[in-house]
Design brief:
With 453 residues, this protein is an alpha+beta fold. It is built from 13 helices and 13 strands. Bound molecules: alpha-D-galactopyranose.
Amino acid sequence: MEQLLDGLVEIYGNGAGEQMARYRSTFAGFRERYGPGPVHIFRAPGRVNLIGEHTDYNHGYVLPVALDRDVLLLARPRSDGQVRLANVEADFEARSFAVSDAIPAAPSGDWSNYARGPAQELTRLRSTGSVQVQGGPVSGIDGLVSAAPPFGVPRGAGVSSSSALTVAMAVAFAHFAGWEWEGAEMARLCSDAEWYVGTRGGIMDQFIALLAQRGHALFLDCRPDADGEFRTRPIPLPAGYRLLVMDSGVRHTNTRNEFNQRVAACRAGVALLRQSMPGITHLRDVENVEWATLESQLPEAVSVAALRAEGLELGDLPNVPDDAPLRVRACCRHVWTENRRVLDTLEALGSDDIRRVGSLLDEAHASAAEDYRISTAELDVLTVAAREVDGVAGARLTGAGWGGCVIALVPEAQVAEFTAHVGQAYTRETGREATIFPCSAGPGAGLVGVVDV
Ligand code: GLA
């Protein structure tokens, strides 16, 4: 146990003591459910994104940061190919399924889909031989998941609780199968695995969950190079500031359709631009073309049906109705400008120009709200209140949108005042309570240790 405590200090710093109590109670839960013996502990963190929203599936740039809030998975391998899962939270009922390369999905929204996806994806990779896998077949497990508040990744809050669960599961399956994978390879696998649930998300959440480094954001260029590799770079967070997370308490549910419609609008933009620029595949390809040139070729809105009539197909996109108006021009403008803002933010961070970083965050929020239309009244109230506090560099929504969290860069000396002011203003304006907490950039996912319970 002492060795475990050392490991927890590396992961959670000062929070290690409290975490030990959380870990111990999860060990007891595991023993009660599955019996005594050795058990492996895996974890994967949630994230916020400093800037670069809805750019990843357009092959753009992102700058996420891991939270020290995470998903814990205690697991023990089984020899019969069965996955039996339980959760410390009673709302998530126990589930089981058999590992195969075609695992039937549980009903939409069921938490076990985030385990079924990676189990199927790993098994397929091995059976198709599409990548060189060293190691054995994916085995079943007995698993217990712990992601309850206050240490777990908040759910539906736009901080990637689902990717954290997917990643923790994938890391466990791969570990027991004896696969030795680099973080980036595993991140790609996990993002493919998440398509299992139907949302056509990008790769940001899985990359940060796996490659995060303490105290750093991760710059990720979501366009692979010729060898299929992704460029990543750890970026130190600005000294003297805290990255504060304000959870609006508004939970996004059933936003998959809205999400996929944004993906569709971007793909529609590419399909239309390809008529004059053959060969482009993603909005990233036009990052250096003047916006005015692009704008003139992008209609304000168009439907999938109208595009199809012109012979343009958008690919596999569940739940996008044929007649839904895709706001192509505004959505593409958001992505095109957001990519520039990410690169400008990198430069401003490099020269310690925090005021500039702050203005870029503010501009990113405006673009997300007006062009991409993913903000809500509550998120807007939080950004306004955050900027009212002296010295705050900037504030913006983070994650997919439609609820969830806002982040702000706050001078260390102002944290207490900030928390009090934003909390009060939010309750006054919306009647809701915000949960405000610092993002202590933590490390990426992995095996924490093996204990006897
Ligand atoms: C979700 C997706 C990510 C990314 C963000 C928006 O979190 O999973 O891939 O697209 O939304 O930036």
